[in-house]
Design brief:
There is one protein chain. This protein is of the alpha+beta class. About 30% of the residues lie in helices and about 25% in strands. The chain is built from 13 helices and 16 strands. The strands form three sheets. It has a seven-stranded mixed sheet. The chain has a six-stranded mixed sheet with strand order 1-6-7-8-3-13, with helices on one face. A three-stranded antiparallel sheet has the order 2-5-4, with no helix packed on it. It is globular, with a radius of gyration of 22 Å.
């Protein structure tokens, strides 16, 4: 693919279609949001040219205007997103608006999909906000709409993790898409702002704000096609009841990462490892929280491995993950609603014990699987590909469904010396393809 030329056509600030009411001017953050890192989560949606579109007039201007109008209407529902981060504990809902950039890119969409490259995907987000954790940034949402020579387009979105987790981000995008398709859909958009009520700081000491650890790390994309996911499940199903695709793929990647780590460590270091798996609390609490709940409502459970484990079996890791998840839900998550904050402080106390080992290497996994990322139809069909930007977070694993919903795309970030070993692991490559074309049917 030739180098991309990006031409910025316009840059605007989109404000909500109706002003925020005075009593909503200050939006208080929940305790979970207060300790979140000030980083921006990026996601980009790719749409091919419509069949009815003219080669000479692909209606870029019409689409851009539609998106701006519907975004304004959506922001009136999600009123904090038009504001600015005031401090660690609140948002100033001042209706200053969100960034909206329109760009033209002299390349065909098929070229990007055929050879996905991080440096190209990064051009689809405005202001280099992807994974940016600059504490001076206060904007909550930024959008770049990029139109390609072929008539296709991409919508790149960066949203502050301070106020939104994956569930909130995907809900917002899908609501925006629904209102773009039909402006009357706004009557069905009812986000619920209950995070600070459900998870107040109360008497919990305010912990240091999380930060992204950066360094000489490399991020690579690996795709597990549906048959390969089924094969991984088959490897453990005789010893593990109902293994999920996320469990087997996460455990498999984690095991390969540990192998790469030990290969480079030699006899100088015999590390213990800890896998941190994020959990969407909405469906785990009793009673469950509405899916439309806005905010960051995630916590984690941890899966340790001992330094003396010379061989880690896949089924053992999956079994541990299931057991740790069940323990977390029954012991803590199900009680967060009625016994907050005491049960949460007990949860943190127990978690700290796992982080006290020497030579501990921590891996973090976040799964976007089962979230309806491919449902974002703005009126010109569902996306052909949805992806995130290359992540800079040390030892991180991000999972997202393939378009057919059966496979998994995994974005793995490791130290360069470990990635050099990891990406050549023969067992890994027997089940995963390294950065294949996004045009492939992953059912095959």
């Amino acid at each position: 693919m030739t180098s991309m030329e990006v031409e910025i056509i316009s840059r605007e600030t989109i404000k909500p279609s109706t002003p925020t009411l005075p009593h909503h001017r200050t939006y208080n953050l929940s305790f979970l949001e207060q300790i979140n890192p000030r980083t921006y989560t990026p996601v980009v949606y790719f749409y091919p040219k419509e069949e009815s579109g003219s080669d000479h007039n692909p209606n870029f201007g019409d689409k851009s205007n539609q998106l701006k109008k519907s975004l304004s209407e959506t922001l009136a529902k999600y009123y904090p997103f038009s504001g600015r981060i005031r401090d660690r504990v609140s948002i100033d809902c001042n209706d200053e608006g969100v960034i909206f950039v329109e760009a033209r890119i002299k390349v065909k969409l098929s070229e990007i999909l055929e050879h996905p490259k991080d440096e190209v995907l990064d051009l689809l987000f405005t202001d280099n906000l992807q994974w940016n954790d600059d504490s001076n940034l206060t904007v909550i949402l930024a959008v770049q709409v990029s139109f390609f020579d072929c008539g296709g387009m991409a919508i790149g979105i960066c949203m502050s993790h301070k106020v939104a987790d994956t569930s909130t981000m995907i809900n917002f995008i899908n609501d925006w898409a629904a209102i773009t398709r039909d402006h009357k859909a706004d009557q069905y958009v009812s986000p619920e702002f209950i995070a600070a009520t459900v998870f107040p700081q109360a008497e919990i000491p305010l912990l240091p704000q999380s930060v992204i650890e950066k360094g000489d790390y490399v991020s690579k994309r690996f795709v597990f096609a549906a048959p390969k996911v089924a094969a991984l499940k088959a490897m453990v199903c005789d010893k593990v009841q109902n293994p999920s695709k996320v469990e087997v793929v996460t455990a498999f990647i984690h095991r390969c990462a540990i192998s790469a780590l030990k290969s480079n460590s030699g006899s100088l270091l015999n590390p213990s490892t800890l896998l941190i798996q994020t959990v969407n609390l909405r469906g785990r609490m009793v009673p469950p929280l509405p899916k439309s709940s806005v905010g960051s409502m995630v916590w984690f459970y941890a899966v340790p491995t001992a330094e003396d484990e010379s061989v880690i079996e896949l089924h053992d890791l999956v079994t541990q993950m299931k057991a740790r998840m069940a323990h977390f839900c029954v012991t803590y998550a199900e009680k967060f609603g009625k016994e907050w904050p005491l049960i949460f402080m007990e949860c943190m106390k127990d978690s700290r014990k796992l982080f006290q080992k020497q030579n501990l290497v921590v891996y973090r996994c976040s799964s976007w699987c089962r979230f309806p990322v491919y449902e974002a139809d703005f009126g010109w069909g569902k996306p052909i590909w949805v992806t995130i930007a290359s992540c800079v977070m040390k030892n991180s694993i991000f999972l997202i469904d393939t378009r057919n919903g059966e496979g998994i795309e995994a974005y793995v970030n490791l130290e360069k010396q470990h990635m050099d070993v990891f990406e050549r692991d023969a067992e890994l490559l027997a089940f995963a393809s390294l950065n294949p074309s996004a045009n492939i049917d992953y059912n095959m």
